[in-house]
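Archive maintenance. Older records in this collection stored only the sequence; we are now back-filling the structure field for every entry so that each record is complete. The fields below show one back-filled record exactly as it appears after the update. Entries are processed alphabetically, and WYL domain-containing protein is next in the queue.

ARCHIVE ENTRY
Title: WYL domain-containing protein
Organism field: Cryobacterium psychrophilum
Length field: 351
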Amino acid sequence: MPPLSDQPPAAPASPRPVTVEERLFSLVLALIATEIGLTKAEILATVQGYRQRYSASESNTSLERQFERDKDDIRELGIPLEMIEAPDDPGSNHHLRYRIPKGLYDLPADVTFSPDELMLLKLAATVWREGSLSAESRRALTKLNSLGIDSRDPILGYAPTLRAREASFEPLSKAMDKNQVVSFPYLKPGERASQRRRVAPRAIVLHDGRWHLFATDQALAAPRTFLLSRIVGPVLPVPGTPVVPADAATGGNPGQKALDGLEALWTAQTATLSVLPDSDASVRLGKRNTDSEPSGAPRSVITLRYTDLNILADELAGYGPEVRVLTPALLQSAVRRRLLGVAQAHGGPHE
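Back-filled structure field:
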């Protein structure tokens, strides 16, 4: 007879969590493998990633919502998802069957990937593991895994990670997909308090190393461009608000329209700087010099183009005495205010 123990029996080990990639991959495999299709109940009860949370006797509402989102993800991957109605019960969602026709899902016969090529594609997708592009990364990896080709995966253990640091990127992207109005607090340079802006997002573009939102301002019914780095709070949907239609200025390709406007602004605005030779400022700013014949004087004169005066002023103030702004006067004043603010904060002169 085994010795008695006062210790309670050990709790059963919790099941290993199933990743998003694994759940989508399992769903794709299950829907390809069936010829007659699977009902929603059959999917939730049997497919890896659902069955661990499925209950035959209790509500599975949250699990059903997860399946609806996964269906959208599968379609975004370009996978043809078929829905088959029961002949004796047309229109019934309860008996609706889902399947992926294998012939439509297979790659064309003339498109193939070697293990090395597949490894590089996976590496590119794995780089975007965090930040706003993580959802796209997961979907790309699911698609690549489903090809059934072995790749040299060990290199993925050394993959770098890129982050889109602005937290507003993902909710703004989702709002664009849904044609939805959102609001957010926006802090303009020189202001102490943010202002709430209500906009219909049209495009998010990268220009001069920074993310910009091109949107229709609902109050002005006009296009405006916002720096994502100046959105200082959560992006919230505004339910029940009709979207102001895009006017002629935002018609066509709004992303290209935004880039054209930013590029025109960058081309039109120039700053002339006097930079101390062999300094950190000389090395860094000299790479962006648009003057083909820099001066040979003790302080080299360089010319920069810029999109946002305040962002450039922040950068130049960081170089301290290594940089002196010659033109324009507004930039000169902006840099001076920043340097005086630093001096005052450290007990320096106030003039």
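Update note: The mean pLDDT is 79. Residues 329-345 form the longest helix (17 residues).
Entry marked complete.
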